[in-house]
């Protein structure tokens, strides 16, 4: 990648972000501050001091495509700028790039799930941990977007905000039980997508009807033609797991009045699983509501894909980017930092070379050419 192209791309994607400072009194350009922060986090920095340290170590190289009129900003400047920067604007820039990538790849399953940033909790200021709800494409290993949960709210209010930001045409949206709401199901269908929603005790009547139906028909499911079933067996980590999926038209399970309240509802999915360890075997049954036809053949993969958000996204953010240990708390800074981390994770995921994410961050910090390779492969730079 040519540095001229890198400079043009930085200006294109981040140069138009409004600067709320008095420009004549500002020593550093906002676009330079944002660019340094992104590159530093991509190369292993996890806080403002580390970002300043990276900038100073790479100052001569950074000057080849950034203006840096007064050198590298201090860590206090980075912290102050990102605490004031409107995260909605940064999120818009994040999603404008993701939509280009997702449009080329085509969305399949979009998992919606929340994550708490435990390090953002502050008892003295009565500040609860920041909770971010993310949209994750498991097939492409991409964070599609995120929305913050308000301090005195919950994920139910944040999920519709996130869905509104995404282009979901033709996708399958999956959520845990928190997102199983009639309004969310309606919003997903109106966006041209389908849904698979986890059914648990927060909808006791539907959950009881589903369980009663399953217990009544459990012994004859294999002989019922209207039920599609698939069996999967997985072995690993000293355990053997078996999962059997059944899909049945909702008319056979629920009353018509209850079905009508769920826009597009067609199918009840039953997942019957057993986990065999060396000393015991456990059994579990889970239920899902879906707008897809009962004859849809990819229910197992779609459901399993949802839980990849835990180890492909949340685990990586905590282990690779030390998100849970971050003590960044002031104003908009925690939310802006989560956006930068997810941007860096997306950039790393788009690179197909061998190596763990942690080693790629380390190598990018040591080798400018490898960093340019990651940026070039991403499609944003």
Index terms:
381 residues; 9-stranded mixed sheet; single chain; alpha+beta
Account of the protein in words:
- Helix 2 (30-42) packs across helix 3, helix 7 (155-165) runs parallel beside helix 8 and helix 14 crosses helix 15.
- Among the domains are: 3-91 and 329-378, no CATH class; 191-299, no CATH class.
- The protein contains 15 helices and 9 strands.
- By secondary structure, the chain is an alpha+beta fold.
- The protein is 43% helix and 20% strand.
- The longest helix has 19 residues, at 87-105.
Query: In which order are the strands of the major sheet placed?
Result: 3-2-1-4-5-9-8-7-6
Unreliable spans are 225-229
**What is the string of helix and strand elements?**
HHHHHHEEEHEHEHEEHEEHHHHH
Q: Radius of gyration, rounded?
A: 23 Å
- How many strands, what sense, and barrel or not for the largest sheet? 9 strands, mixed
- State which percent range the strand residues make up: 15-25%
Number of strands: 9
Put simply, the count of helices is: 15
Return the structural class: alpha+beta
